[in-house]
């Protein structure tokens, strides 16, 4: 919210945002692009062979795979694929050796 209480729009140049190592998974880096109403948008990068452990979402998660390929809950995702997890869904994500995953994530779970 702005100072006058009106809803605002956040604009972010993703190139200007530094990569940060995930607090929860080795080989996973994130760029925090914005936050509103308790939800976050992130650009996420996995090193080859990296996995993000099984976790439960407190809210919905929206993932769009920009490049590479990944496996989420035993489903192979390639560039251009999207995944939506409802609140309470348990999710595990991994990357096959030799592949890079970059995606936009809408939950903020990769921090």
Overall description:
The chain is mainly beta and 111 residues long. It has one domain (14-105): Jelly Rolls, CATH 2.60.120. It is 0% helix and 49% strand. It contains no helices and ten strands. The chain has strands at residues 20-21, 28-36, 39-46, 51-56, 61-67, 69-72, 75-78, 82-85, 90-94, 101-105. The strands form two sheets. It has a six-stranded antiparallel sheet with strand order 1-2-3-10-5-8, with no helix packed on it. Strands 4-9-6-7 form a four-stranded antiparallel sheet, with no helix packed on it. A hairpin with a 2-residue loop joins strand 6 (69-72) and strand 7. 22% of the residues are buried.
Which architecture would the CATH scheme give at its second level? Answer: Sandwich
Structural class category: mainly beta
Categorize the overall geometry.
Answer: globular
Could you estimate the helical fraction of the residues in percent? under 10%
Q: What is the top-level CATH class?
A: Mainly Beta
Tally of individual helices: 0
Number of strands: 10
Q: Could you give the order of strands across the largest sheet?
A: 1-2-3-10-5-8
Radius of gyration: 14 Å
CATH superfamily: Jelly Rolls
Q: What is the CATH topology?
A: Jelly Rolls
Can you write the helix and strand succession as a string? Answer: EEEEEEEEEE
Strand content: over 45%
How would you state the average pLDDT, rounded?
82
Summed up, the domain count is 1
Main sheet attributes: strand count, strand direction, barrel closure: 6 strands, antiparallel
Give the CA-CA distance, first to last residue: 23 Å
Uncertain runs: none
């Amino acid at each position: 919210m702005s100072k006058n209480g009106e809803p605002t729009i956040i604009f972010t140049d993703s190139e200007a945002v530094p990569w940060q190592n995930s607090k929860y998974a080795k080989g996973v880096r994130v760029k925090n692009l914005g936050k509103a109403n308790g939800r976050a948008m992130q650009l996420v990068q996995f090193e080859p062979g990296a996995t993000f452990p099984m976790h439960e979402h407190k809210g919905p998660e929206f993932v769009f795979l920009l490049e590479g390929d990944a496996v989420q809950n035993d489903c192979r995702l390639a560039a251009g694929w999207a995944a939506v997890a409802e609140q309470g869904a348990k999710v595990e994500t991994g990357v096959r050796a030799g592949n890079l995953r970059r995606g936009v994530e809408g939950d903020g779970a990769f921090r």
